[in-house]
Specification:
Length: 229
């Protein structure tokens, strides 16, 4: 048996594929932390007060392009040990999608900052209790929307307005994915409450991979209906 055949068998087995996935997740995780660490360090040190909500949102600005690059790298990852280049894919996605990701990430952060500031000063505002529930629903809906938008803008080259429309359309078009992403949001929120934002950051690549898995039907439809094959 030739060396070429042996190498091919080594790189294509289930254990090799699992190892390739784990390696890719680890590399992507390190790169997400590297690109988002300036804001994350400040975020962890900030006092959890209503007055700091806008600054907290600003600290999350680097996370948008980082997550977009992670989505790109995981989408284009090699399935075999001999085809692993996750770092190259990550930096390519970071360069390609930085501006597009910020166009959808910044408006979402603005919404979160406004909602957080209002909830933080809720008792002083003197508004009815149902208003707080409405704000929470708004924040959750905006987060589900930005999850779809981030996937779309990371994998396809659309205008920001088209990304926004497709992301909103997909919330109703794929209820299973929306529900799955909602559960993912609850898990992320639970990790943040029980631990810290730092713990959530350490799970970035796993959560991103789960988001990409949840979005596979949406990605397939966008590719088939709205792109040239």
């Amino acid at each position: 048996m030739s060396d070429v055949t042996t190498s091919r068998k080594f790189g294509t087995g289930p254990l090799s594929r699992a190892s390739a996935l784990i390696y890719t997740l680890l590399v992507v995780e390190l790169l997400v932390l590297l690109t988002a660490v300036p804001g994350l360090v400040v975020l962890v040190l900030l006092d959890r007060s209503a007055g700091n909500v806008p600054l907290m949102a600003a600290c999350l600005l680097p996370a948008g392009p980082a997550l977009s690059a992670a989505l790109y790298a995981l989408r284009h990852r090699g399935r075999e040990l001999t085809e692993l280049r996750p770092a190259s894919a990550f930096w390519r996605g970071y360069r390609l999608n930085f501006g597009a990701a910020m166009k959808i990430w910044v408006p979402w952060l603005v919404v979160l900052a406004l909602v957080g500031t209002n909830l933080g000063n809720f008792s002083a505002a003197g508004v009815p209790g149902w208003w707080a529930a409405l704000l929470v629903v708004l924040a959750a809906g905006a987060t589900l929307w930005v999850a779809n938008a981030l996937v779309i803008t990371s994998l396809f080259a659309f205008r920001a307005v088209d990304v926004a429309k497709l992301a909103a359309y997909s919330l109703g078009r794929f209820p299973g994915a929306t529900l799955a992403n909602g559960c993912l949001l609850i898990v992320a929120g639970g990790v943040t409450v029980v631990a810290t934002e730092a713990a959530l950051a350490l799970l970035a690549s796993v959560l991103t991979a789960t988001l990409l898995w949840n979005s596979r039907a949406m990605v397939t439809e966008v590719q088939q209906r709205f792109t040239r094959q």
